[in-house]
Fold these 2 entries.
Entry 1:
Amino acid sequence: MVVKLQAITVNEWKGYKQRPFLIAGPCSAETEEQVMETARQIAALDQVSVFRAGIWKPRTRPNSFEGVGTEGLKWLRRVKQETGLMVATEVANEKHVYEALKYGIDMLWIGARTSVNPFTVQEISDALNGVDVMVLVKNPINPDLDLWTGAIERVARAGITRLGAIHRGFSAYEKTVYRNQPNWQLPIELRRRIPDLPIICDPSHISGSREYLYELSQKAMDLNFDGLMIESHINPDKALSDAAQQVTPNDLRELLSRLILRSPVASDPRLLDILGELRQQIDVFDDALVDILEKRMKIAETIGQYKKENNITILQTTRWDEIIRKVMVNGVAKGLSSEMIDTIFKAIHQESINHQMRVMNNGALSGKKTG
Ligand code: PEP
Ligand code: MN
């Protein structure tokens, strides 16, 4: 599905400085001094286009810092006047939109907990009708590309043309090193659906900690994302929200200096090294294949444990016949050859048996007591 909408490419945006289009600033505006000092240091980098700060904060649990509210809009207005940076904040309802526009905020973003809700996105879009402001739509917390696309379409229908998406990763029950799973294939597919739509990566909310910011930012650049949104605070460890993932403006400078920008061609930042980008996409899918195989083997081991405890044989031919028949029909319908399906699934099956054998013969799964 290719969606035709009004979005213009990021280098056509007023205020576009360079690739990557950079948005930086604290997770939350906390005090006027913290906002002004962070903004001065970020402005001094001379690379960032937009200063961000959340003033209405969607927090997971009550009794945590929920933002300074409207008062913070005055600080953002001051940032704009004194540093020349454009300013951005999160809006989660129509009142936020009206308040932010009253204070001349240049860019609004719709957060991940809001973009899941079509009622709220529509309410925000109605409030934006006929307004010339930049709007970025974060991916919903669940990996649902249609929901993300739908939210973007609602905002586009309100006439917003300086419109973009922010990839901030997806919530998952299983914990990995990242706070949110990148699932790179979703923003890649979004780019295919809406080719002109600028996509900004938010490595801060994907990683949840500073140590992965650089590798995620580099990956986003290699996948030809248009920009980055990175949380930066003058004193990250003392931040009232998302302390572990924020970096000082100085560390941000250092991170940016290490980024390798591979794809742009001098005269047109959107002309790609097509082959390079496609190979990056292949790498993403290969990584995902390995992750899935690892998960499948873990389940096989649990099954092995269960069979051991209940004295059941490892090989159950009818179950295996059923699996191979199902994947064959599914794979052939998707244009894959029956030879490949046969080879791959035989190998996967053999590997599963090996994992189960190991459990049966060598005792319990790690961390579980022997049955
Ligand atoms: C944010 O950018 O501060 C924020 C709350 O992000 P998200 O909606 O991605 O959680
Ligand atoms: Mn944050």
Entry 2:
Amino acid sequence: MKVTRREFAKSAMSAAAWSAAPSIAHATQPRFFPTGFLWGAATAGHQIEGNDINSDFWLLENIKPTMFSEPVLDGCNSFELWAGDLDLARRIGLNTYRFSLEWSRIEPEPGLFSMAMLDHYKAIVEGCHTRGLKPVVTFSHWTMPLWFAERGNWTNPDSPALFARFCGRAARHLGDGIERALTLNEPNGLVMEKSSLPESVMRAQATMFAEANRVTGSTDFVGGPAFAEAEQMQPNLLKGHRDASSAIRAERSLLPVGFSLAIVDEQAAGEDTAMRDTARERFYGPWLNTAKQDDYIGIQNYTRRRWDAKGALSAPAGARLDQIGNEFYPASLANCARYVHKVTGRPVLVTEHGIANEDDLPRAELIPAALTHLQEAIAEGVPVLGYIHWSLLDNFEWARGYVPKYGLASVDRSTFRRTLKPSATVLGEIAKRNSF
Ligand code: BGC
């Protein structure tokens, strides 16, 4: 591990010095997380595997015009190097690894399932167990098989049944060893992101899809970040989640199933909460409602957003911003956990939380500060099952390419060598002790 004692001491000191976490410095008793708490790091297939050439994103990244700043190409070469990734998670001191299945590899043509690819993901599940890692498996983390995109993606009325068929098949093959299943990653995300995008993005997307139709010879191509279709896809995504959950449970009745919600800590800037409440209802309402029938809910939070009577405000003057403009705000995660549990009554699993930063120190500050707040929420009675950090590796960050750095480990882009950062030690020490 390339973390010197001095680096660790430095990051731990600045973590303790962070003003939002005075309780770390003043704590005299170790403060424990619940027994069995999941401590993990997350990845997603397309962002690390490389060469998933049968997926909608692969196509969109490689046509012209494209909305992507660069193509994923080899990713972190994790399709080959996955065992080393698991070793890394273990070396950090984690007990959980979240990864996703690439549907486009498992079902490259409609109804044709690849045994070799199912076995590939089964080996990862088993590899987790041999290393004492609990596998949390996302059945779909945004990428879709090309054939699914050519048929309109989630705008297609058949999409819920097609997704449920895939999930059932994959659960039959892998389900025994999975700790927790997530059907969809952030199915509410596009609606939320679209709300702050200019109309020009919809036009750029239409041009990109026209080219995708041309090269695939289809007429209904919808793929990648389909902002223009975001609202139209919601009913099918909701049904897709419900049908997929039933298909997974039909194969593995004891496997806990949920989905992961993209959530910002929405705050009212003054007395008037109307705009904040409307945003909450629009971005999260239908999904929180559906989660009431699930075993648990995954939450993925990166920051807060403030609302006044006119709309969303930008970050306060002087706020610290990360590489993609998110405000550094460690309390947001616990606030989201409180809100989501209050509305759904379900246990909450943090399936993503992190920060985009070239310099690792803010990550080493954020982790203990956010966990201090999370522990307060747990003490208040919010059932939190675990904390899974985004991400294990610096990876392909979708339209932004490889620029934003979220990893607990950096990755050399030509040798694929992984190097742990000091923040990995910060998280690992807390995980190993299950306390501060
Ligand atoms: C997504 C990840 C993404 C992360 C950071 C989440 O919305 O699930 O795939 O990389 O945010 O941008």
